[in-house]
Structures are given as structure tokens and as C-alpha cells.
Amino acid sequence: TSLFTAVEMAPRDPILGLNEQFNADPNPAKVNLGVGVYFDDNGKLPLLKCVQEAEKQLVDAAKPRGYLPIDGIAAYDKAVQGLVFGTDSAIVSEGRVATVQAVGGTGGLKIGADFLKRLNPNATVLISDPSWENHRALFQNAGFKVDTYPYYDAAKRGVNFDGMIAALNGAPAGTVVVLHACCHNPTGYDITPAQWDQVVAAVKSRNLVAFLDMAYQGFGEGIKEDGAVIEKFVAAGLDFFVSTSFSKSFSLYGERVGGLSVACASKDDATRVLSQLKIVIRTNYSNPPTHGAQIVATVLTTPALRAMWEEELAGMRVRIKQMRTALQDKLKAAGVKQDMSFITLQKGMFSYTGLSVEQMQRLRGEFGVYGVDSGRICVAALNSKNIDAVVAAIAKVS
Ligand code: PLP
Q1: Is residue 304 within 8 Å of residue 361, measured between CB atoms?
Q2: For the Aminotransferase class I/classII large domain, which residue ranges apply (predicted)?
Q3: I want to staple 175 with a disulfide (CB 3.0 to 4.6 A). Which of 8, 171, 227, 245 is the partner?
Q4: In a mutational test of the pocket of ligand 1, which residue from 15, 132, 242 has the highest number of ligand atoms less than 8 Å from its CB?
């Protein structure tokens, strides 16, 4: 026997498994809608022009690669705060936000989870049912008990808001509530501004800790619009957490650029919180990498590049919306009787199609159309060339 004889094989990541199955499928007409990535109309992963410009500047500057500070590039952290809370917001100008650069949005969640575990070791973490697959495992691995609050209502094709708010109102003080700030993954259904007000009120009256996961800012309605929910938590005077990801909004998946911001009641609180976040980082990976954050900081702080980014981001957002409208219209034209109007009500990259496991499996096996068994498809992987085949396949299994 070796040290590792008793090590069990861990279960495969279900979405990566789907990708492997897709790659092995000889069907020339196959379409991969299982991924969580934005592709352009040619089915390609975009490299944004603003990113290329910033990279040229960085190469020309030929800067040496020393260690970054533990909390990352200062200009980057400031830019993240500006995007999340608004550059002119009182909370930022008063120094009440502690922001650190993180290894993607996942890294931001993990730093926040590790810090929360020290603060509030016995808290339960509530995630939405369903949620991004990694939320549960990430908070469990940080040592928390993870439960869910109701979110998706399959019969209604929408959010079970009564169930959600009842769960929050019934949660014990200190419970950590993970909320998708916009573009809910996997369902595509967001709650309304009035419903957010009720969530904020429940968090406040029950003394809960909100952890907003903002992985898709700019993919729903716009940068400001998608960030509007943050203002509500600030206005209520709450201490809360926000993780940021630039993986999708800059198409910088592999550079691992994200952040964590903690909104505090005072500058003094923020200073002490920051010192603790730095310990979490220091003992995990010491300090973050330079390249991706340098690109994002350059783009966000250079007016011409910033304008270019906002335009390119709007381009991605608009294309997704066009695909939603086209999918809805074409399904109707193909004779699908079921009301599909929910497709254009959903936001962001994903759509819960309402298709059953059996239907999703038939789509894969008979037509080479790969979505997740839950019925989730990535609308951002549809394009003008593959949409008709996808619609025809869905019509056949409906
Ligand atoms: N949170 C949600 C809801 C996501 O959908 C994702 C990515 O798919 C992440 C976090 C992770 O983002 P990143 O790839 O930047 O770590």
C-alpha cells in the first residue's frame, strides 16, 4: 500500500465531462451550449480590442515583474470600487470599502469565505436553489454548513420569490446569504428592484450577512444598471461582501482577474478588515499575478480604452439579447406550442429552457446539441450560423 491507496477518485466536474463528450462527438453539426463562456457570432472566443491595446502599451512599457502588494495593484482595486460602488459614491470617498485583487471571481468568493469563517465560524451559508455549481463546494471547503433558499419555480417558469423571502426571514442572525447581483447562473432569472428592496429589508431586520456575487456586471442591462443593487445595500447601511469577476466582461477567462470588496460602516472598520483579508491572501498564495489586473486597470483608467471597452461589452450584451429574441421567434415559427416568452425575460448568458433531462439527452444524442441536463443552455454560444439547427432540434424533441 502507498500513502495514496485509500484516496478515492473524486467525482468529475459535470460540465467538463460534457465538454469531453462534445469533443469526442464526430457529428459535424454539433453545437456546444453547455459552456459558460461568451462566443462571438463566428463561434469564437473574442479578444477585445481594448485588451489588445492595453497589452501593446504594457509590452512597450517593458516593466519588470516584481511582486505585487498582497492586496494587488492599487489602481486596479480603486477601479473595481468605482465600477461596483460608483466612483463618486460617499462610501468610496469616505474610505469605507476594503477591496483586494483576487484570482478571478472564484478567488474573491474564497477570500471572503475564509475571512467570514474566522468572523462567524458557526454561521450557515445559504445559496440559491439552484446556483452556480461551485458555490456550495467553495463555502463547504471553507468550513461552512451550506443550505439553500428557494429560487427557481419550474412550474411558474420564474422565481419563487415568496419562498425565497420566507427563507431569508426565517434564517438565524449571522447567516451568510449568497446572492447573484445580476444575470443569475444557471437560471437567467433575476429578481425585480422592488423584490431586491424586500431582500435588503430581510437581510437588515434578520441581521444576515449578504455576499453578492457579481460575475456578469454589464451582461444584463448595462454596467450601472447591473450594479444598481449594490446601492440598495449601501443605502440600508449594511456591512456586506461583493465578489467581482472580469472573466466574462473582459473575455479574460484564463488571466483570472477578479476582486473582493467589503462594504463597512467606517473607514476604521475597513482598515482592519483589509488587514485581515491580506492575511487570508498571504497564507493562500502570497500575492496575486500582475498581467490580467494590469490590463483591466489600464483599460478602466484610460478614457479612450474605457470607452472602447464599454462599447465592446455593449456589443456582447446586445448580441446575447438578439439571440434570445431570435430563439424565441424561431421556436414559435417552428411550431413549438409551449409559451417561450420567458427566454427574453431572462438575463445574461444562460437560459433555463424548461426542457427535461430526457429532452436534453435526446438533443445531445440525436442532434449533437449539447446543453446541461438541468435544461440550462448558454445563449451566448448561439450564433447566426448554428441557431437554426438548434431550433430545429428543440422543435423535434418538444
Ligand atoms: N460566480 C458565478 C455566478 C459564475 O457564473 C462564475 C463563472 O462562471 C464565477 C463566479 C467565477 O468567475 P471566475 O471565472 O472569474 O472565477
Answers
A1: no
A2: 30-394
A3: 171
A4: 132
Decide whether any atom of ligand 1 lies within 6 Å of the 186 Cβ: no
What pTM value is reported for the model?
0.97
Mapping DSSP onto H, E and C, the string for 55-108 reads: HHHHHHHCCCCCCCCCCCCHHHHHHHHHHHHCCCCHHHHCCCEEEEEEEHHHHH
How many Å lie between the centroid of ligand 1 and the Cα of residue 349? Answer: 12
213 lines ligand 1 (CB under 6 A): yes
The ipTM assigned to this model is 0.99
**339 C-alpha to ligand 1 centroid (Å):** 30
Residues 358-395 pLDDT 10s? 999 999 999 999 999 999 999 999 999 999 999 999 99
Name the residue with the closest Cα to ligand 1, atom 1: 215
* Contact yes or no for 299/360 (Cβ under 8 A): no
Any idea which residues carry the catalytic annotation?
Answer: 132, 213, 248
- The long-range contacts involving 74-78, CB below 8 angstroms and separated by at least 24 positions, are 75/297, 75/301, 76/101, 76/259, 76/293, 76/294, 76/296, 76/297, 76/300, 77/101, 77/259
Check residue 378 and report its DSSP letter. Answer: E
Which 3 state secondary structure label does DSSP give 47?
A: coil
